[in-house]
Amino acid sequence: MKLLDFWRSLWPEKQLEVEPPLDFDDDPFDKPVVIEITDTIDLHSIPPKQVKEVVEEYLQQAHARGFSIVRIIHGKGVGVQREAVRAILNRTEFVASFYDAPANLGATIAELNPDSQTQQK
Predict the structure, then answer these.
(1) Fold of 28-112
(2) How do residues 48-59 score in pLDDT, each as one tens digit?
(3) Do 23 and 3 touch, CB atoms closer than 8 A?
């Protein structure tokens, strides 16, 4: 039973003025969410299943905009997300190097090789 159906079964006589909460699997957005591309991305709000796709797209967009250094905030934790991010960085051809952000802030710094063919003005 969907949450909405359950919600309505509790109060069948009432017209719901406010929509009930979404189910766990419900997507609240009917269109892709556009994130501003800066030199930093924070992955805390990204669902784990989408991290790979988001980081790959972020790197492409940051490189296309000519960023030479980016910071990817993955959090401290036990290192699972950090290793996933570093695996992506390791196989991305325009990433020159990457390393821990200073002061162990739960982030990785990546240096990108410039490529004039893909930069946007």
Answers:
(1) Ribosomal Protein S8; Chain: A, domain 1 (3.30.1370)
(2) 889 999 999 999
(3) yes
